[in-house]
Write a structure and sequence with these properties.
Helices cover 71% and strands 0% of the residues. The chain has 10 helices and no strands. It has helices at residues 13-19, 23-29, 41-47, 52-64, 69-72, 77-106, 115-148, 157-163, 169-181, 188-226. Helix 7 (115-148) runs antiparallel to helix 9. The protein is globular and about 60 Å long. The relative contact order is 0.12. The protein binds fe (ii) ion (2 copies). Residues 132, 136, 164, 208, 211 line the site of one fe (ii) ion.
């Protein structure tokens, strides 16, 4: 459930996490160390060298489901790219391997007929996700970093926006397959995997929304300024 309250720099990080535990993976993607005591968001961001406005925009988006579009226009494109890059690493190096491991452990030997299919669906999803991130890492992000430094290349953010596809569909298919057809006498582990898959789907959705509604417009504006 989304809340309506928005947080400011004066609020504490601990209160922020209490408001919605979905903030935890965001803290992890910003590389915020644990042990923040009663420190304010402002202090933690300053100490960890994080753009406060970007941090507030993202946490308030996760909390309320609403993105402050006008506020996003003042953000530095390079800072947004850094955050998205950290998110890619978080998904590929941590979240996805964690889900795959738990999924493998939750499989029931009684289903050896469909188990390989579930794992191969999951691996197809990972391959698709990796290719999607790889394109952004190797083509889109270097273009934006260069543009921010005043170096213009042939690429344009419009090209990215035209080809930016959803990556969540195959994950939703795996979830539906398990939910509808995976009968098991000991479902606890599989329920845990489903919770992880749902969280990951939601995380990937917000990731795409930040790319589409924050990154693309601010880079478009930067392109206009550099013309
Ligand atoms: Fe991305
Ligand atoms: Fe993307």
């Amino acid at each position: 459930m989304k809340i309506s309250r928005r947080f400011s720099g004066r609020d504490s990080v601990a209160d922020l996490v209490m408001a919605d535990y979905n903030i935890l993976p965001v803290l992890s993607r910003f590389n915020i160390p644990l042990g923040f005591g009663n420190k304010s968001i402002e202090t933690v961001c300053r100490e960890a060298n994080i753009d406060l406005n970007l941090f507030l925009l993202i946490v308030n988006f996760v909390l309320t489901g609403e993105l402050d579009r006008s506020g996003s226009l003042s953000l530095s494109p390079a800072h947004v790219v850094d955050f998205l890059h950290n998110s890619h690493e978080y998904f590929l190096a941590y979240k996805i391997p964690h889900i795959r491991q738990n999924l493998t452990n939750a499989l029931d030997a009684g289903h050896n007929d469909i188990n390989p299919m579930i794992i191969s669906f999951f691996d197809e999803f990972v391959a698709h996700l990796s290719a999607h991130f790889d394109y952004e890492e190797k083509t889109v992000f270097p273009y934006i970093r260069n543009l921010a430094r005043g170096v213009k290349t042939d690429y344009s953010i419009e090209e990215f926006s035209k080809h930016h596809e959803e990556v969540n569909e195959s994950l939703a298919e795996i979830k539906n397959l398990i939910l509808r057809y995976y009968v098991t006498a000991t479902p606890n582990r599989m329920y845990d995997v489903l919770v992880d898959i749902c969280n990951c789907e939601e995380d990937l959705d917000s990731h795409a929304t930040i790319e589409n509604t924050v990154l693309i417009p601010i880079v478009g504006r930067l392109e206009e300024q550099k013309k």
